[in-house]
Amino acid sequence: MLCEEWRGLEPYRTLRRSSAPPLMTASPDHSIQPIAPPRRSLPLLIATLSMMGPFCIDTYLPSFHEMEISLGATPLEVQQSLTAFLIPFAFMTLWHGALSDSLGRRRVVIVALFVVAAASIGCALAPNIQVFWFFRVVQGLAAGVFVVGRAVVRDVFEGAAAQRVIAQVAMLFTIAPAIAPVLGGQLHEWFGWRSVFIFLAGFAALIATWSAMCLPETLPPERRQPLEAGRLMRSYRETLTHSGFVFSSLAGAFNFTALFVYIAGAPAFLLRHLHVRETQFFWLFGPVTAGMMLGSALSGRLAGRLDTRHTLGWSYTAMFIAALANVGLHAGHEASLPWSVLPLFIYAVGMSLSLPTLTLIGLDFFPLHRGLASSCQAFLLTAANAIVAGAVVPFVSHSPLWLAVTSAGLMAIGLACTGLMRATKSRAY
């Protein structure tokens, strides 16, 4: 998702005299001209599009054990299928926005979703783990298209309307990780693990069809930009080498990966250590989602009431207490419900309270191209998740104590990055 200065013209605007305002664009004489009225279902469509990534990541987690047997794979090989998805997913979050600026929003969204659908069918029909890995890579390359939805929101809405749409998208994005494993567990119980990927194929095809029918093209040909590799590379390099931006982004990323350790390790944590069934993944994802929603709500309520220092102070206090309690609990006792998930709820509250503040700090280092900076933040977060899922979780998920210690260590790195961020002076752009 590229910045407006690259687009060269004013963003689309909405008229306030109707509930479904027409899209606007700049004519050659720079006057504002209507294009087409956006459908009222557009915010819901963008919010549903944002669920594609979490569904691809979390829906099949309850099926790991059956997949080991069916595909003749080891637990590590099945675990690596998360990494096979997350690495290309992270890489393409940097490029889907650029593609949509050149080819148009609508076309990129529709094509990418149909690719997700086709790759999901490939996963469902995979005869062995190697073929399964291949189609997970293809899934990851296409599923990052959700970033285009943010560009559509910015094209169409502004002011309070844009805030409402973003809030709806954030809410569904938060709920998706809780719904996905529960739904996947039911499909696994009824029809086996392959049915999970048939569902993902149908879900992606449904959104693609919905997009073909209802998603307007919000970037007309005269406003599109050529894909100039040199210009893009310079901007990405400038952003990803700015110390203040990198430290703020890594702080948010490590704070989140401290929780993602449990998401990626959910099959081992829930099935082996807490001894729940494949249909009971809500024991983890329910409290975590509730904590994230509460933290996000607190962040909104405290905006303008607490400054950055106090907001981060309270959030890290909650995360530190939760991490310490988590380590202490599992150092002296076996994992059990509900005590093993209670610290994760508290941690999720603190993490979600800190994330908006860290995100805005990072974006403010680049006031002239915040869109590109946002894509870089998404890339760093997803890359960190991929590394943790592939290189950390397989070696610590055998023990609840090691999971707790690893989570606490990642949080400590996030805290250190926050300190380094505060010590970095902003550059002028």
Beta strand %: under 5%
Using the 3D structure, state the CATH architecture of the largest domain.
Up-down Bundle
- The averaged pLDDT comes out at 80
**How many H/I helices?**
19
Counting DSSP E segments of at least 2 residues, the number of strands comes to: 2
The strands making up the biggest β-sheet line up spatially as 1-2
Bulk shape: globular
N-to-C CA distance:
19 Å
Q: The CATH topology of the largest domain is what?
A: Growth Hormone, Chain: A
Kindly state the percentage of residues in helix.
over 70%
Query: How many independent structural domains?
Result: 2
Which regions have little confidence, pLDDT < 50, spanning 5+ residues?
Answer: 1-37
Look at the structure and name the CATH superfamily of the largest domain: MFS general substrate transporter like domains
Major sheet: 2 strands, antiparallel
Structural class call reads: mainly alpha
Order of helices and strands: HEEHHHHHHHHHHHHHHHHHH
Query: Class of the largest domain in CATH?
Result: Mainly Alpha
* Rg result: 22 Å
